[in-house]
Amino acid sequence: AVYIQAKSLSAGAAWQIYGVLALVLIALVARYLPRSGQLHRPGTAPEPLLLTADLKRLVWSYSLAGFGYILPATFLSQMAAVRFPGSLFAQFVWPIFGLAAVVGIALSILLRHTSTANRRLAIVLWLQGAGVLAAWLLPGIGGLLTGGLLVGGGFLCAVQLSLLYG
Q1: What's the chain look like in SS3?
Q2: 78-87, pLDDT tens digit by residue?
Q3: Cys bridge to 105: 9, 156, 158, 164, which one at CB 3.0-4.6 A?
């Protein structure tokens, strides 16, 4: 991303670079995926999915969380570029977001015995909501930094805890 920014490449060129990178990574990972028809647990049939009220609430909360963080997370670097024209800070919003995601998932693993999965998920979603508001409401670098840390910090945790709770 820093290379693309430094060379002032177009969005089309950036998508092509990311597409090639994705294909290379798929080629590296694909050999470890199960083959068609293979189950992860041989000899067991999957249980039928029952749409309980709890599962519906989980899907709604996860969907709303996704809608809530996808817009600011997608546009954090553009928000930084508009707030700080010509500044190098705009290039480093995503690395801050990514580093926060790593720290967040590490904390989630370390704190896995402190409470229930659904309570930890609720806390993560509230923190992400606060990050979305911070990126929008707080002026200057503080808002973007707080938003990047809170939204990024909960990014992988929300997925992990939703799957665990589900």
Answers
A1: CHHHHHCCCCHHHHHHHHHHHHHHHHHHHHCCCCCCCCCCCCCCCCCCCCCCHHHHHHHHHHHHHHHHHHHHHHHHHHHHHHHCCCCHHHHHHHHHHHHHHHHHHHHHHHCCCCCCHHHHHHHHHHHHHHHHHHHHHCCHHHHHHHHHHHHHHHHHHHHHHHHHHC
A2: 777 787 787 7
A3: 156
